[in-house]
Amino acid sequence: LNAGLNVKDPGAPKFSRGRDGDLRDVWRKAVSGDTGARGRLLTVLGSENVVEHKMDDINRQINIIGRYIAEQGSIKVAIYLPNSIEHLISLLACSFYPNLTAVLIPFDVSESELISLLRRSAVDTVVTATGSFPLDAVVNAYPSLRQLIWVVDEGSRHMDWNDVPEGMGSAVNVTTWQDLLNDTPAAAGTELPASEGSTGAPGDIVTFWQGKQGELEEMVRFTQANLASGISGQIAAIPTRERLTQADLFLPAESLSNMHTLTLTLAALYSNSSVAFNS
Q: How many domains does the chain fold into?
């Protein structure tokens, strides 16, 4: 078993043992590349439309979303999204900004199951896709929800998604991902918060595991150290000549709310492979 990623900080003695690391180190490695070569992040829409995401733009979104969630006083952030760049950004935002626990909700579950998962994990914030989240029903059954960020697809951005259903009052603060980006100056920093210092250690990640169909999901909490060890183990388990490199393209076909899928995807990022998302 590998304890971690053996992250060597600049200026560290050559033969010293590196840090175990966390998701912030995974992303920094993906951005910096390995000996100057780095992979690409892609969204595949249909059979022909492929969108490439610039690393600086992703850094900007991590900063905007993470800062907003933290400033709202959020503690537990549910990510209820299909496989997408926004899913990855939300997870990284919870890692780069302090006191945030990411809760990965399996996507496209039934309404009653969704409410049960939100209640059991005691989330106060949800990042979700429009058309996939029954806001009225959730708020009526789970009044502890305080923040909602809609991820709106391009074809629906002309609509006003900031309104709350009648009778809900101001219990839930609703905004959209795109509005947060548009309301922030384009020159807003792409420099991510430092990994060490006042930000402290990043928060845990909560997932749900279902052994058999129809069984109640088990809620499992992973520390960042657990995840770093898992990523390192997945990389080390593959013979050196067969390991992922910047020449490879990785497509997570299973949901990123599945911890094994997420770990392999993060291992691909850490290995500077290209990663494609297709929900």
A: 1
